[in-house]
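ligand=3-methyl-2-oxobutanoic acid
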Amino acid sequence: MSKNLAVWEKAKREGRKMTVITAYDYPFARMADAAGLDAVLVGDSVGMMIAGYADTLPVSLEQMIYHTRIVAKGITRALVMADLPFGSFEESPAQAFAASAKLLKAGADIVKLEGGAVMAETIAFLSKRAIPVCAHIGLTPQHVRQFGGFKRQGKTPEAGAILIEDALALEAAGARIILMEAIPAELATEITRRVHVPTIGIGAGNGTDAQVLVLHDVLGLNPDKAPGFAKRYLEGAALVQAALAEYADDVRAQKFPA
Ligand code: KIV
């Protein structure tokens, strides 16, 4: 069962790649689980993929609880990871615990939070209180205002060294998984080699222990432009639009109902 984090740790030791996809609702969670994905991430990207927001900042804890609940309903085997949204955990470890407990009660197996070494105290607090944590570093979309856009991170040796320090501090604090977004492949590979916990990459090359992609990028359903590192496996939007147009044509031509 990929729900057990020991399975992830064993996979890292044995060099077996793990697979993660985002999901925001019951039908896609069921399909991801049946397809054999090792984890489903209820990402705060729900704000951009489902709610039509420009970034993830407006996503509320209540939205995350709702989507976690309906995703978890569709999962029998995969690990359910849920994002702590912007504003729900940064103030204090106690605030993070209250929010994380709600996500676990909704069906999450592990929470994910964005931030580097500054979050070590919070991760230690959560880890000692029955909350497994995935730490998300690199391009952390909740910092988009600070970064001045969705910009790749860790591009200079100095910035890379800070990310390595972040990863080591977060592991030492008790993070069970480290997720790295949009950083150089060599840096992500180096961090994967230096930490003992499994790493997940997105736009970070092929040297991480696992990969994650956003469901709507994979299926061609992203309402906006998908990032360059994503791979599209289906022309979803075109297929859906064609099916809907065919239905409308049938009704107009009195072919449906027969
Ligand atoms: O919210 C999300 O989908 C994420 C992934 C981009 C890793 O955090």
